[in-house]
């Protein structure tokens, strides 16, 4: 199933669009309804997140951080992290290296 460039529902109140990747870098947009949850997980990839709109509460390595429109944060590889939207929100996530687990589904 081709998901590059199309919106897909990933959980209740959460959808994403994976953009066409470069050779070692990729990005995706993630939209959240209020209360939408990105379940805690980890991956070996370094991740940068930029909040395009809204307000969200991240948990990164057990620490809570509130992110609002215009804020960004870095998530090191292999660190457990998750997020809950405090209001309708959109993130732009960037990963390196490529998230093959997302690209080859």
Question: Any overview of this molecule?
Answer:
With 105 residues, the protein is mainly beta. The protein has one domain (7-103): Jelly Rolls (Sandwich). 4% of the residues lie in helices and 56% in strands. The protein is built from one helix and ten strands; from the N terminus they run ββββββββββα. The chain has one helix spanning 100-103, and strands at 7-11, 14-18, 26-32, 37-41, 46-53, 55-60, 63-68, 72-75, 81-85, 89-96. Strands 1-2-3-10-5-8 form a six-stranded antiparallel β-sheet, with no helix packed on it. A four-stranded antiparallel β-sheet has the order 4-9-6-7, with no helix packed on it. The longest helix is centred in the last third of the chain and has 4 residues, at 100-103.
Q: Going across the major beta sheet, what is the strand order?
A: 1-2-3-10-5-8
Q: Which structural category fits the helices and strands?
A: mainly beta
Bulk shape: globular
- Per DSSP, what share of the residues sits in E-state strands of 2 or more residues? over 45%
CATH superfamily: Jelly Rolls
CATH architectural type: Sandwich
Distance between the termini: 7 Å
Number of helices: 1
Number of domains: 1
> What is the radius of gyration computed over CA atoms, rounded to a whole number of angstroms?
13 Å
Descriptive terms for the model:
four-stranded antiparallel sheet, 105 residues, Jelly Rolls
Topology of this structure?
Layout: E1 7-11, E2 14-18, E3 26-32, E4 37-41, E5 46-53, E6 55-60, E7 63-68, E8 72-75, E9 81-85, E10 89-96, H1 100-103
Antiparallel strand pairs: 1-2, 2-3, 3-10, 4-9, 5-8, 5-10, 6-7, 6-9
